[in-house]
Amino acid sequence: MKWEQIPLGRVQTNCYCLSIDSKCIIIDPGAEGEKLAQILQEKGLRPIAILLTHGHFDHIGAVDFLREKYSIPVYIHKKERDWLSNSSLNASTFFFPDEPMQIKPADFEISGAGKLTIDEFSFTIFETPGHSPGSVSYYVEAVQFIVSGDALFYGGIGRTDLPGGNQQQLLSTIKETLFALPEETIVLPGHGPKTTIAREKQSNPFLRA
C-alpha cells in the first residue's frame, strides 16, 4: 500500500490518498474536492471509500463532492455521527460563521477499535479521543504507518478547546495507544509534516514524562 499526503483548504489539512494499484481510499478530504479529483485522475486512481479520522470542518469539507462524484461510502465513528450535519459540533460556525458546514450522514459508523477491511485495504482502527470524542486513527501494520488525525503531530498534539475536547484524555490516548506502536511507525498527522513514534517519544514537549 502506498500513501500520499495532500494538504487542502484554508488551513492546509492533510488529506491522505492510500493506494493499491489503481484503487485508493481517501482519508480526511477537508476541502478542494475538484482539485483532489484532478490529482486522482492524473495519477490514474479510482477512490472506493472515504474514511474520516473525526468530524471537524477542516477534515470533511470535500466529502459530499467526492462521494457523489465517485458513488463511494463514507465512514466515521458513531460518537460523531451528528457532527457532519451540525455546524456547531463540526466547528465551522466557530471559525467561519458565515459559512456553516452541513454534510450528509455517513454511510457506515465505526463502533470501536478493531479491524476494518475494504476491498484489498486492511486497517487496524484505534480509538484516539481527546481532540474530539470520536477521533480514530488508522494503522497499517504491513507498511508501518498510522494516520493519526489531529491526535498527534510533529512536535505537538491536537487542540482540546473545541466541543468534546479533553486534554488529559488526549495525553493518555497518545501514551497508552499510539506510543505502544513500534517506534519506527510513521505518523501521518492531520496537519504538518510526518513524524515517527520514536521521535515524538523522545522530543515532543507535550509528552515528556
TrEMBL record:
GO molecular function: hydrolase activity; metal ion binding
Named cofactor requirement(s): Zn(2+)
UniProt keyword annotations, A-Z: Hydrolase, Metal-binding, Zinc
SUPFAM superfamilies membership: Metallo-hydrolase/oxidoreductase
CDD domains: metallo-hydrolase-like_MBL-fold
Hydrolase is among the record's keywords: yes
InterPro entries: MBL_Glyoxalase_II, Metallo-B-lactamas, RibonucZ/Hydroxyglut_hydro
Keyword Metal-binding included in the entry's annotation: yes
Stretches assigned to the Metallo-beta-lactamase domain: 12-191
Alphabetized Pfam families for the sequence: Lactamase_B
The protein's name: MBL fold metallo-hydrolase
Organism expressing this protein natively: Perspicuibacillus lycopersici
